[in-house]
Write a structure and sequence with these properties.
By secondary structure, the protein is of the alpha+beta class. It has helices at residues 25-31, 60-66, 107-116, 140-146, 175-182, 240-251, 270-275; strands spanning 14-16, 21-24, 35-38, 43-44, 86-87, 94-97, 102-103, 129-131, 136-139, 150-153, 201-202, 209-210, 219-221, 228-230. The chain has seven helices and 14 strands. It starts with 13 loop residues before the first strand and ends with a helix.
Length: 278
């Protein structure tokens, strides 16, 4: 793994702090003050930020995904060598390519649901909604019950800020990250150990947006914070289904290991949204 560098001076004399924060010793010496930055989105850490260890800068997850060095490595693909993720120039939605034709991992779900007339409000779960420009939509049912216009973001499924400008793009924190985690797109490769899992996961340690390359076991290591976790069940220590079956055959007392070893089952991203405060 390449040594991380400071986005300002490009030196590797840095020290990672808790969460997504890092401090550059070289810049701190030159500026005569502690220079901290987010090593995910590569921007200076806000001076007036609270003691939170998670970056609260707008579109942190989107920038981190776009700054990733992962490239498409399919020799037969027309986009071989391109970055794995792109951002839509119009609405900033996170995009990828399936090697054959353009695929929008996040917006594909919205387009499919829109064509079927199944888009629903995140509050009342009704489909009586009107789609405005960009990512903004209005729920007629909630607007009637609240006696005011209720708007929400189609991507991240949160209420549209009332004091926002006339921009068509959602400016709520971690919009792209939430949209990716809420996507219905799943890994469908029958040979993959993570078949049936959501296409994207958020690292339990640093919230970085990750996917699985389909090779090997479900356990992965976050390239940003080096956190180990299972892509299927999201636990930090997972013994896998095969290991559990072996223990059952050897001991016939699987319940004895219930606290330490339990079946590895695919979970959705709702747990991540709650635990990570997204």
């Amino acid at each position: 793994m390449n040594s991380p560098k400071c986005p300002h001076c490009q030196q590797s004399d840095i020290r990672k702090l808790d969460g997504q924060r890092a401090v550059c010793r070289s810049c701190s010496k030159v500026k005569r003050c502690v220079f901290q930055f987010c090593w995910a989105c590569q921007r200076e850490w806000p001076h007036n930020a609270s003691t939170t260890n998670s970056c609260m800068l707008p579109n942190c997850a989107l920038r981190a995904a776009l700054l990733s060095v992962k490239l498409i490595s399919e020799p037969q693909s027309s986009v071989n060598g391109c970055p794995f993720l792109r951002a839509c120039p119009g609405c900033h939605a996170l995009l990828t390519h399936n090697g054959l034709s353009s695929v929008n991992v996040v917006q594909e779900d919205l387009s499919h649901e829109r064509s079927k007339g199944r888009l629903t409000c995140p509050i009342c779960q009704q489909s009586d909604i009107g789609i405005l420009d960009g990512q903004c939509a209005v729920c007629r049912s909630c607007s009637k019950s609240k006696r005011c216009v209720f708007q929400f973001c189609l991507a991240c499924q949160r209420e549209w800020p009332r004091d926002s400008s006339t921009t068509k793009s959602c400016m709520l924190p971690n919009c792209a990250l939430r949209a990716a985690l809420l996507s219905d797109t799943k890994i469908s490769d029958p040979q993959s150990s993570v078949r049936g899992c959501p296409y994207f996961r958020a690292c339990p340690g640093c919230k970085a947006l990750l996917t699985h390359n389909g090779i090997g076991c479900p356990n992965i290591v976050c390239p940003h914070c080096e956190r180990h976790f299972c892509f299927r069940c999201l636990r930090q220590r997972c013994f896998g289904v095969i290991r559990i079956e072996a223990l059952a055959l050897l001991t016939n007392r699987l319940s004895f290991f219930q606290d330490d070893v339990s079946p590895c089952r695919v979970v959705d991203n709702k747990q991540s949204l709650t635990v990570l405060g997204l």
